[in-house]
Amino acid sequence: MTVEEIKENIIKLRGELPCGVKLVAVSKFHPMEALMAAYDAGQRLFGESRAQEIGPKHTAMPKDVQWHFIGHLQSNKVRQIVPYVSLVHSIDSLKLLRCVDDEARRIGRTVDVLLQLHVAREATKYGFTIDECRDLVDSGAADALTNVCIRGVMGMATNTDDEAEIRREFREIRHTFDSLKSSHFASNDRFDTVSMGMSDDYRIAVEEGSTMVRIGTSIFGAREY
Ligand SMILES: *Cc1c(COP(=O)(O)O)cnc(C)c1O
User: Fold this and answer.
1) Which atom of ligand 1 is nearest the CA belonging to 89?
2) How far is the CA of 187 from the centre of ligand 1 (A)?
């Protein structure tokens, strides 16, 4: 994509998304010029999925950018990202949640996080099952953590042409959020985020109650790995 096309894509998406839905521009593997084009179109939320890309991109981009980590996070990479991220979408174990909390405390920050749910049929996607997620929240183990704030849930649908299946999975994610909200986070205004929807399925995700979409290809074009 050219710089002009990236700007147009951002403006078009922003026009299309309802006002309660935040747009995360997924910039993994894309060069700084592409990110700056999105920035110049007003984009301030960027998502990365490789720990080693966040620090350098944070250094190179203007300081009012917010960085989200959206990829699978290994405990030994937590230290690389915690100084820079405002939201980690991909918490998939209590161990990882504690690890982010420890590191955030060590450097004197608080980091917002989402619990990643596994609802897709693919065996390869990370995340809690709905039961595991509910057990974690019910156990109260997360309540004592002082330097992470659980803001909601994140999930991905199966990569399929079956729209009914995608819709069913997004509905399950939204339903889990609503149920956790009413059982545990009812008086917590900060539990407010349902991160779901990518380039191929964000319209369905928004219809099913997404509050945050993560879009890469439809903004920046295909990635070259
Ligand atoms: C890469 C990625 C995206 C963006 O995917 P596109 O299809 O390019 O929009 C969204 N979410 C996660 C977790 C990703 O890894």
Assistant:
1) 13
2) 31
Give residue 215 CA to ligand 1 midpoint distance, Å. 6
For 21, phi then psi, to 5°, come to: -105, 120
pLDDT tens digits, 78-113: 999 999 999 999 999 999 999 999 999 999 999 999
Residue partners of 184: CB distance under 8 A and separation at least 6: 137, 138
Domain count, the chain: 1
Can you give the residue range of the structural domain that contains 50? Answer: 3-220
Residues with CB under 6 A from ligand 1: 26, 28, 49, 70-71, 198-200, 214-218
30 alpha carbon – ligand 1 mean position (Å) = 13
Question: Cα–Cα distance between 51 and 96 in angstroms, integer?
Answer: 14
Any domain includes 225:
no
Beta bridge partners of 47: 26, 68
Q: What is the pTM of this model?
A: 0.97
Q: Is 124 within a domain? A: yes
Query: Looking at residue 193, which CATH number applies to its domain?
Result: 3.20.20.10
- Residue 125 scores a pLDDT above 90: no
